[in-house]
Structure formats: structure tokens, C-alpha cells
């Protein structure tokens, strides 16, 4: 009977046997690999937890019946009945530690030699980040800076290992032992912060860590664990010191608590509570209190001169001052603002100019240079507030002056609002960065100076005159931090906060930078600064008219500025804000909703002009002069002398074309005349079959410089050269279902170069695609076809302009097809 059933179901039996064998083999391979891979991927926290499992047989999620501290003279040898103190478990833990240590040693074996570098570095260059930076840097000067700083930080850091904490309400020199205490499993005695220092835990190291985070108490437990908190331990939980009997791995002569017993220490600082700003009374009058005088420290980039004029006008008062730093790479902005410096005595431009890249160490240098100049100037001021071209006031000058007058000599900075150690990691304070070639290169790790509280947050500040005087005068704390932040990302976001927390001015700290910022992190945190820094950063979004209620709702709050504003994106919100603050414009006020922004000026050296813009601008100027000459017999232009300027033109938040200004001559002896022509990009998307679902298509263009944060291209004229990376931008209305479309990229010779597909969701969206195209691009008119279900439904075209040079190098004719 059994044989008959086996014959009938033999295929099933064979299949089941094969599956069983495969499962056995896979299980064997899995557990063989797991023995090593689990240990290999252990982090410090998980290694500490491994030791808990090895020594006590439980993990974080398991229950333990052991809740009481053992008593008696032999308590050191006692373990809970469910714990195993076997040699094998300790041996397994030691192997894990050794494996991790070996991995750490062999992580960066590759050493760069003289042949690769072209010079002799001060030390062996082997760190992964440093090697990567050296391979990517373009100039030998930058490579030498990277190598020198990397070696310096690794061998002999140019900043102190310990800095003084000078807040008068604290005394870090008086840190002392409180004693041994019983600790709970779920409810910890010091719940503020916990970490595991497997190799380095000691009483001093734990106290330094807790002091770094601003905690009043530190505690060591179970040998490797460090706890921090602000609440005084309950004296009812105090135990004899013999109950804290585990050695510290970082100092074997010390004890670091025990099993649910903790050695507690005072760090010397008290729990920090930021001051609350006073609010001026409704009937506030200055009377015998002189109103504060403010320096607006403007750190400017770009070409939005018209918006900077508008900002200065909104803030202007005869009692206030404007100290302006223009990025060293922006000649146009500096040249235009120099004109108002000649006419207004309370406006001054800094001649110590730096390239203030995002996250760069140069921004801190810029701010400190400016403050030094302000202290040495003859201006009589009480506060300095730093702003950019993207800021704008949201309350009147009178309201700001009253507020700062009643808070005279306080300092306004915005803290990060999270746990300090998390902030240090996310901010990259423990990483070494080097600035050169207008980029921040990550080159390795570094240790933070000990002995002080670390803080940080926003780099928008309002600082009092006494504190600025202290910053400029300097002391051991300031000089040490200045050296440290030379090699740190986003230094201005931490330097002033940290100085303030550790200086004699610690009690003037108010956790408010007087700003409201338009954060939309799902859009603004897309690593958009990777082209200038080896780190992922976030940037706030531009306020648009739809955000007006958010600004209006700050009326009762202690905020006086908002950011970001960009009139080239949305002028309506700025106009609405000005009317709200200062009243309606006259009815006959012209060009209220128009905006012009310069793209090119013939006097500019930096930044270098876009050659595609020059070619298009000169070509259009020639076309315009030819038209004038042929269509008007009295207008005989002899020569087109020079392309002077190019502007984009916007009206009611819509791009309306661009203006080119050029100079012409009529005869050898005639005066030169300035002409201006208004131009418009002609190539647009065309829908061939406007049926569902393609009737959802709202926009279909090819451009470049797509801003993912603002969901738009900043290349308004849509200039594309042979070495530009084109971006296909398409906007869709909401629909009932998703579908897939295909894009075909055809060069000027109708050759198919690239095919891409994308899925269009039901919701309204703006999306983009960057195809992989061979460089240089063929010059001429390209076409992109939109195909749905094998039918061409729409197309768009774009022009690739010719180039004769790139980066001052002639392009071979063979590449200029």
C-alpha cells in the first residue's frame, strides 16, 4: 500500500526531497556566514549590547527577573540565577572586539604615493575621505592644502585639546563624585543621554561627554556605559561604593559602576535655561532710555541688486547702519552697491571680500572680519544683525527698535533643539573639512576640544555690542574655537552659540534668532549643495503668495524677519508684505509688479560669462541692428560695437523674456548710442493629439539648472551649450489614473540618441528627467518626442548653441559637429 502511494505521488516526493535538501544547504551556508558577518557589522552600541548578552544572557528586549542589587560580602561573585558567567561567552565577546579592531585597522590600507600626488605629503595619506578628496581636487595647490591639513589634524591638531568654560554660574573645575547609586532597568537615574564607550569609558571621559552636552550630572555603569542627566539623584538610592565594582576599560584603576549600579558625578555646570526676551509694553516710550542703533550686516551673493535696494529701503533709518560684504566672485553686485556707498554715510562696503560658499569656513571669517571692522569704526551702534539678499523685515523698524531696546545687551541666537550628540553627528562637527577651489572637502575625522559645552543651530544672529567687543578682543576660548572652526563645516552655525554658552556672556543667551524660515524639508533636503560640499545639507524654500498666512500669523510673535524671498520667483509676496507694513502704494506707481535681474555685464570678470549667453546675445543684437538698418532708411547703423548687458524680465511672477543692451555707431565720428531689444525664447512644447491622458500635460520644455527645491528651472532663457546637461521638465494636472510615457531624444540630424520612460502619477506634479547624452552635444535644434502607447502625442525642441572655447580652451573642429 505504501509503495503504491509512493509510485502514485513520486513526483511530489521527489520535489519535496529536493526542496528539503536545498533548505538544509541554505541553512548551513547562512549560519556559516552569519558567524562572521554579524560580528563584522557591529556598531559600538551593538557591541556593548553583545557584551550584555555574553555576560548576562539577555538583550534589550528580553525580560529579567533580577531587579535588586545583590548584598553581602561576596556580592562581587554573585550573578542573577539566570545569568551565565561562562568563559566561552567572554571569549566570544573578546573575539568580536578583536574582529572589529582588525577591521578598523585594515579599513584604509591604501596609501597614496608621490607618483599619484605629484608632491611629497607630510604623512602617509590613507584615509578614505582624504584619498577621495585628493583624487577629485583639480589643482595641485588645493591637493597640497588637503594633504597638509589632513596630516596636521591627524598628528598635531592646531587647536587645544581642552578649552576653558567661563560661564560665571558654572564651575567645571569643581566636578566631584556624588557616589554609587542603584539604577533601574526601565527608568534610569540619569535619563538625559546614554552611550556606550567600549574601549574608552572612564569617569573623566564620561564627565567630558556629559559636559559637552551641557548636562549637570554624569554617570558610569556596567563598565562601558555612560549616562547623562540634569536631575539630582535620589539619595534614597545611594549605595556603598563597593557595589560599583566594574573596572573602566579606559582607566583600569577606576570603577565604572556595576550591574544596575551607577557612579554619579557632577560635571560642574547647572541645567541650562535660556533667557526669555522681554516684550515692550503697548505704551512704551523711550523717554530717558535711548533707542538702540543697529548695524545690518548684509552678506550678499548673486545678482539680485534690485531686491537688495528694496531691502535697504525697507530697513533704512538715519540711526542705523549698513555694513555690506559682497561675495568675492560677484563683481556686478559689488560695483552696483558701491554707487550708494558714495551717497549714504551710513552705508559701507567691506573691502575684505571672501568666497562665501554654502557651509564654507570663509563665512565665519567674513562675519568676524566685519565685526572687527565695526568695532574699530566710528559708528555708534548697539546691535549687529546679519541678513542676506533673501531676507526681508516682517515688522516695522519702530517695532524692532523697541524690542531690542528693552532687551539691550542680550544676544539672540537660535539653538538646534535636539540632543547635542545627535547635533554634533548631523552637523559633522567631528569631521575635518578643508576649503579650497570654492568647495568644502571632507578629509577625515577629528576630536572636539573638551571642557566646554557645545551648541549650534541657525547662523542668523542678533548680537549685542558688548559681546561683539568680546569676540573681537579674543581670549583663549575664542582663539581655540577659531582654530577649530577653520576646519569645520557650517562654522557660523555653531561658533557664536558655543562661545556664548561658555563665555562670561552665557546669561545673555536668548534662544531666538528673530527669524521665521520657510522650511519645507521634503523639498529642501535633497543634498542640493553636493556640488560645493562633501555633505548633505538643507535649504529653506522661497516664500510664495500661498505662504502669506504663515507670515501674517507671526504678528504676535517675537520674530522680525523672514526668509527666503526671491522676486525672480515670486514678487507678489514681497509686494503684499510691504503694503502690510507700510501702507498702499500711490495709484500711479509704475512697474510695481515688474522685476529685472541682470545676467551679464561687460565689466564683469567674476563670474566668467556664460559663452552661450554671449553668442545668443551678440547674435540677437546683430539681427536687431540689421532689421533697423533695412526697415528704416534713416537709421543706417555702421557697426555693432559691444554687447553691454543682458537682463531677464518678469511681470506678475511670469517670465516675460529677456532684454539685451548693446552699443552701436552710425559713423566714424558719431556718438555711440545705447539700444535695447526685448527677446523671447521661441521653441515651446507642442501637443499633437490632445486626448486623455495627454490632455493633462501643462508644460513640456527642455532647459537646465533645475531647482528641485523650487520645482523650476533657473535657466529662464533656456540656453544650452555643447557641454550643458539638458533637463526635460514636464508638468501635469491631476488625473484619474497613472500611466507611462516614453521620451525619444533626436539630435539635429534626426538620429535617435536616447530613450527614457517615466510613470505619471494621478496627482498633479512637476517632474524632470536628465538623460545620458554623449558630450559635446551636436549643435543645432534637437527634438524630444513624447510617446504614449506607441503614438507620438507631443514634442518639444531646444537649441544647442555653438561654442568656440570652453574654460579658455579652444574646442577642436572635430568635436563641433
From TrEMBL:
Location of region: Disordered: 61-86
Entry similarity comment: Belongs to the glycosyltransferase 14 family. XylT subfamily.
Native species: Aphis gossypii
Listed EC numbers: 2.4.2.26
InterPro entries, sorted: Glyco_trans_14 (IPR003406), WSC_carb-bd (IPR002889), XYLT (IPR043538), XylT_C (IPR024448)
Domain WSC: 174-268
Catalytic activity: UDP-alpha-D-xylose + L-seryl-[protein] = 3-O-(beta-D-xylosyl)-L-seryl-[protein] + UDP + H(+)
Keyword Transmembrane helix: yes
Gene Ontology molecular function terms on file: metal ion binding; protein xylosyltransferase activity
Keywords from the named record: Disulfide bond, Endoplasmic reticulum, Glycoprotein, Glycosyltransferase, Golgi apparatus, Membrane, Metal-binding, Signal-anchor, Transferase, Transmembrane, Transmembrane helix
Pfam family membership, one: Xylo_C
Gene Ontology terms: cellular component: endoplasmic reticulum membrane; Golgi membrane
Biased composition (Polar residues): 65-74
Top-rank taxon, per record: Eukaryota
TM helices/strands, residue ranges: 12-33
Compartments (UniProt record): Endoplasmic reticulum membrane; Golgi apparatus membrane
Major place of residence: endoplasmic reticulum
Name of this protein: protein xylosyltransferase
Pathway(s) it belongs to: Glycan metabolism; heparan sulfate biosynthesis; Glycan metabolism; chondroitin sulfate biosynthesis
Listed PROSITE patterns: WSC
GO BP terms, alphabetized: chondroitin sulfate proteoglycan biosynthetic process; heparan sulfate proteoglycan biosynthetic process
Membrane disposition: Single-pass type II membrane protein
Amino acid at each position: 500500500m505504501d509503495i503504491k502511494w509512493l509510485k502514485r505521488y513520486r513526483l511530489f516526493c521527489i520535489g519535496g526531497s529536493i526542496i528539503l535538501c536545498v533548505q538544509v544547504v541554505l541553512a548551513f551556508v547562512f549560519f556559516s556566514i552569519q558567524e562572521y558577518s554579524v560580528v563584522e557589522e557591529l556598531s559600538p552600541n551593538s557591541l556593548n549590547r553583545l557584551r550584555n548578552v555574553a555576560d548576562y544572557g539577555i538583550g534589550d528586549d528580553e525580560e529579567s527577573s533580577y531587579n535588586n542589587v545583590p548584598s553581602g560580602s561576596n556580592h562581587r561573585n554573585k550573578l542573577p540565577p539566570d545569568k551565565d558567567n561562562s568563559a566561552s561567552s567572554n571569549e566570544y565577546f573578546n573575539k568580536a572586539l578583536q574582529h572589529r579592531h582588525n577591521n578598523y585597522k585594515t579599513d584604509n590600507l591604501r596609501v597614496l604615493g608621490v607618483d599619484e600626488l605629484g608632491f611629497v605629503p607630510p604623512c602617509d595619506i590613507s584615509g578614505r575621505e582624504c584619498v577621495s578628496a585628493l583624487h577629485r581636487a583639480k589643482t595641485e595647490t588645493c591637493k597640497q592644502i588637503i594633504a597638509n591639513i589632513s596630516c596636521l589634524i591627524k598628528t598635531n591638531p592646531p587647536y587645544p585639546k581642552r578649552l576653558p568654560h567661563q560661564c560665571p554660574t558654572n564651575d567645571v573645575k569643581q566636578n566631584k563624585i556624588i557616589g554609587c547609586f542603584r539604577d533601574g532597568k526601565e527608568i534610569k537615574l540619569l535619563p538625559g543621554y546614554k552611550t556606550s564607550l567600549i574601549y574608552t569609558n572612564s569617569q573623566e571621559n564620561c564627565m567630558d561627554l556629559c559636559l559637552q552636552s551641557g548636562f549637570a550630572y554624569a554617570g558610569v555603569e556596567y563598565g562601558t556605559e555612560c549616562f547623562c542627566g540634569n536631575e539630582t539623584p535620589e539619595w534614597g538610592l545611594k549605595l556603598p561604593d563597593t557595589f560599583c565594582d566594574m573596572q573602566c576599560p579606559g582607566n583600569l584603576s577606576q570603577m565604572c559602576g556595576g550591574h544596575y549600579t551607577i557612579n554619579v558625578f557632577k560635571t560642574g555646570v547647572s541645567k541650562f535655561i535660556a533667557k526669555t526676551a522681554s516684550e515692550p509694553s503697548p505704551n512704551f516710550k523711550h523717554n530717558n532710555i535711548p533707542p538702540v542703533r543697529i548695524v545690518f550686516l548684509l552678506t550678499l551673493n548673486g545678482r539680485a541688486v534690485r531686491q537688495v535696494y528694496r531691502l535697504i529701503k525697507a530697513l533704512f533709518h538715519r540711526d542705523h547702519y549698513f555694513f555690506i560684504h559682497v561675495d568675492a566672485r560677484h563683481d556686478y553686485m559689488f560695483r552696483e552697491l558701491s554707487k550708494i556707498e558714495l551717497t549714504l554715510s551710513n552705508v559701507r562696503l567691506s573691502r575684505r571680500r571672501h568666497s562665501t560658499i554654502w557651509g564654507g569656513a570663509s563665512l565665519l571669517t567674513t562675519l568676524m572680519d566685519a565685526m572687527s571692522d565695526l568695532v574699530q569704526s566710528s559708528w555708534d551702534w548697539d546691535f549687529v544683525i546679519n541678513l542676506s539678499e533673501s531676507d526681508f523685515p516682517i515688522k516695522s523698524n519702530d517695532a524692532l527698535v523697541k524690542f531690542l531696546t528693552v532687551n539691550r545687551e542680550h544676544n539672540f541666537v537660535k539653538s538646534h533643539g535636539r540632543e547635542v550628540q545627535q547635533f554634533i553627528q548631523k552637523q559633522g562637527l567631528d569631521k575635518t573639512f578643508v576649503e579650497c577651489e570654492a568647495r568644502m572637502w571632507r578629509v577625515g575625522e577629528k576630536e572636539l576640544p573638551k571642557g566646554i559645552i557645545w551648541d549650534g543651530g541657525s547662523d542668523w544672529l542678533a548680537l549685542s555690542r558688548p559681546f561683539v567687543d568680546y569676540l573681537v578682543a579674543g581670549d583663549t576660548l575664542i582663539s581655540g574655537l577659531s582654530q577649530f572652526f577653520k576646519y569645520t563645516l557650517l562654522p557660523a552655525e555653531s561658533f557664536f552659540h558655543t562661545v556664548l554658552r561658555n563665555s562670561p556672556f552665557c546669561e545673555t543667551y536668548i534662544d531666538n534668532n528673530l527669524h521665521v524660515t520657510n522650511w519645507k524639508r521634503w523639498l529642501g533636503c535633497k543634498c542640493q549643495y553636493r556640488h560645493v560640499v562633501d555633505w548633505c545639507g538643507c535649504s529653506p524654500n522661497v516664500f510664495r503668495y500661498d505662504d502669506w498666512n504663515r507670515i501674517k500669523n507671526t504678528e504676535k510673535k517675537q520674530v522680525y524677519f523672514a526668509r527666503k524671498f526671491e522676486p525672480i520667483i515670486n514678487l507678489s509676496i514681497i509686494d503684499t508684505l510691504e503694503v502690510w507694513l507700510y501702507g498702499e502704494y500711490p495709484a500711479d506707481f509704475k512697474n510695481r509688479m515688474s522685476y529685472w535681474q541682470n545676467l551679464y555685464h561687460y565689466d564683469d570678470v567674476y563670474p566668467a560669462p556664460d559663452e552661450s549667453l554671449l553668442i545668443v546675445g551678440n547674435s540677437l543684437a546683430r539681427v536687431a541692428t540689421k532689421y533697423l538698418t533695412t526697415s528704416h532708411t534713416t537709421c543706417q547703423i555702421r557697426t555693432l560695437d559691444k554687447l553691454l548687458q543682458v537682463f531677464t524680465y518678469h511681470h506678475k511672477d511670469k517670465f516675460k523674456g529677456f532684454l539685451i543692451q548693446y552699443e552701436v555707431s552710425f559713423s566714424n565720428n558719431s556718438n555711440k548710442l545705447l539700444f535695447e531689444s526685448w527677446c523671447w525664447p521661441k521653441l515651446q512644447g507642442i501637443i499633437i493629439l490632445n486626448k486623455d491622458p495627454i490632455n493633462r500635460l501643462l508644460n513640456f520644455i527642455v532647459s537646465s539648472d533645475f531647482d528641485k527645491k523650487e520645482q523650476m528651472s533657473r535657466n529662464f532663457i533656456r540656453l544650452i551649450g555643447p557641454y550643458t546637461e539638458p533637463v526635460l521638465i514636464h508638468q501635469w494636472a491631476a488625473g484619474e489614473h497613472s500611466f507611462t510615457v516614453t521620451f525619444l531624444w533626436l539630435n539635429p540630424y534626426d538620429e535617435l540618441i536616447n530613450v527614457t520612460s517615466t510613470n505619471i502619477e494621478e496627482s498633479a506634479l512637476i517632474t524632470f528627467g536628465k538623460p545620458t547624452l554623449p558630450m559635446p552635444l551636436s549643435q543645432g535644434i534637437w527634438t524630444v518626442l513624447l510617446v504614449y502607447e506607441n503614438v507620438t502625442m507631443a514634442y518639444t525642441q531646444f537649441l544647442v548653441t555653438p561654442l568656440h572655447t570652453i574654460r579658455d580652451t579652444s574646442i577642436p573642429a572635430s568635436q563641433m559637429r
